[in-house]
Write a structure and sequence with these properties.
binds uridine-5'-diphosphate-xylopyranose; about 475 residues; about 15% strand; six-stranded parallel sheet; globular
Length: about 475
């Protein structure tokens, strides 16, 4: 087993394969993608132009690229040459047909399986890296078995647990690697082959093997549990604001219980990212399909609280600004769904901006890694999905601009909203920012990263998620 191909050079495929190549010098890893533009960016001699921003990624790519790590659009060639093929294409929520807005769209995954079946002339192990509904491996296996060349395939599930922004760190030091396979002799052999690859750098006790469906389900459940913690603390943040308790103090007290633990208890403007909402919707849909309506409703609650939190934040801004944002300028610090990534999928910024733009506000955003084009595309996609007219969309988009620095975004603005927790936002000159803003100047800290007392003493009217307002 010394040749790997990965279909999909995205946030998961790119970093994961770069780390495998780096840790396994004897294995040749080829990452392929249908997007010529994306592959060209991965091959760009200037590492600043990699399509994905992740701390540490450029260094790993620099060391392995051209040696045993290759990025290519020659998909068929890479499939044919590989012993192991990872499928890491995106699996967005369906935007059409049955399960619209809930189920995972498996079109790309199925296309990959069909392509592998039609191209491969020798036996392969096919690994699901994409997050998929339970029993998808079975469907992939069935498609592969139609191969006209008589090749045989073993499908494994090997979900990725990396978090964006810390992907490289997570890949080097995973809490666990999960590999699901069939319990037949061939299935066990395939699982073992993949175990041996990870064992090059992951301690064997951290490599967990299960049956294929347990593995698929564990990925959905892990994300659902993580998101549930955020929704739990976010629900309490609303209660804290109403009662005078401070959510940070509550989270610290609660998290000290070793059975609960301190992680993922940070109240925020709401979780985003390509996974949490999509995977929970997937879980909810799955439960509904099996008639488990109470279970479906339970997990749907995690999403409902997240939607509530995003709306609540936008409403708080509007209420504080004397019930109208029409014609007012609001500075946004951050657009990415978390710090240290240029990924904006499902970012709370999109939904907060949507509400404020619909109320007639002008928004000026500063994000160190996200382009205006990306921001406009995020909003346009949302509004088109809702069926809004192009005229309406164009007009609203003209009210969202970017600035070249955090300070510049606040120039003549009525309010500042902190949406992403980029470290550089903590150390700004707030007195200088205050002096260039309209008065009264408001700050809404959706990430709890600023010094609330300092802001108050400068003269800002400051609001922080989960903190009672002092007058
Ligand atoms: C991954 C997983 O696949 C998804 O299931 C999981 O929930 C989140 O992480 P991600 O890497 O974030 O997705 O997706 P993205 O960054 O969009 O990359 C997917 C890549 O696959 C794109 O570059 C796209 O061009 C490519 N692709 C898509 C193909 O090469 N072939 C296709 O048929 C479809
Ligand atoms: C998540 C999972 O963590 C990862 O294991 C899985 O493979 C993919 O999905 P990711 O979405 O990249 O990773 O980032 P994560 O760090 O989990 O953050 C998700 C969202 O939750 C972000 O918007 C983040 O800001 C928010 N969050 C996280 C909070 O609001 N509070 C917290 O305490 C933690």
């Amino acid at each position: 087993m010394n040749k790997i191909c990965c279909i999909g050079a995205g946030y998961v495929g790119g970093p994961t394969m770069a780390v495998i190549a780096r840790q396994c010098p004897n294995i040749t890893v080829t990452v392929v993608d249908i997007s010529h533009e994306r592959i060209a960016a991965w091959n760009d001699p200037n590492l600043d132009n990699l399509p994905i921003y992740e701390p540490g990624l450029a260094e790993v790519v620099a060391k392995a690229r051209g040696k045993n790590l290759f990025f290519s659009t020659e998909i068929d060639k890479a499939i044919e040459e590989a012993d192991i093929i990872f499928i890491a294409v995106n699996t967005p929520t369906k935007t059409y047909g049955k399960g619209k807005g809930m189920a995972a769209d498996l079109t790309y995954v199925e296309q990959c399986a069909r392509r592998i079946a039609s191209v491969a002339t020798s036996d392969k192990i096919v690994v699901e890296k994409s997050t998929l509904p339970v029993r998808t491996a079975e469907a992939i296996q069935t498609i592969l078995e139609q191969s006209p060349h008589g090749a045989s395939f073993e499908v494994l599930s090997n979900p990725e647990f990396l978090a964006e922004g810390t992907a490289i760190e997570d890949l080097f030091k995973s809490d666990r690697v999960l590999i699901g396979g069939r319990t037949t002799t061939k299935g066990k052999e395939a699982v073992q082959a993949l175990v041996e690859i990870y064992a090059n750098w992951i301690p064997r006790e951290k490599i967990v093997t299960t049956n294929v469906w347990s593995s698929e389900l564990s990925k959905l459940v892990s994300n659902a549990f993580l998101a549930q913690r955020i929704s739990s603390i976010n629900s309490i943040s609303a209660l804290c604001e109403a009662t005078g308790a401070d959510v940070e103090e509550v989270a610290t007290a609660v998290g000290k219980d070793s059975r609960i633990g301190p992680k993922f208890l940070k109240a925020s403007v709401g979780f985003g990212g390509s996974c949490f909402q999509k995977d929970i919707l997937n879980l909810v849909y799955l439960c509904q399909q099996y008639g488990l309506n109470e279970v479906a409703d339970y997990w749907q609650g995690v999403i409902s609280i997240n939607t509530y939190q995003k709306n609540r934040f936008a409403t708080l801004i509007q209420k504080a600004l004397f019930n109208t944002v029409n014609g007012k300028t609001i500075a946004f610090w951050g657009w990415a769904f978390k710090k240290d990534t240029n990924d904006t999928r499902e970012s709370a910024a999109i939904y907060v901006a949507d509400q404020l733009l619909s109320e007639g506000a002008e928004i000026v955003v500063y994000d160190p890694k996200v382009t205006l084009k990306r921001m406009h595309l995020d909003l346009q996609t949302l509004w088109e999905f809702r069926g809004e007219s192009q005229v309406e969309i164009k007009e609203k988009l003209s009210n969202l601009k970017t600035a070249s620095s955090a300070k510049a975004a606040c120039n003549k603005s009525h309010a500042l909203a902190v949406i992403t927790e980029w470290d550089s936002f903590k150390t700004q000159d707030f007195s200088a920012i205050y002096s260039q803003m309209e008065k009264p100047a408001f700050v809404f800290d959706g990430r709890k990263i600023l010094d609330y007392n300092q802001l108050q003493s400068i003269g800002f009217t400051a609001y922080e998620i989960g903190k009672p307002t002092q007058s």
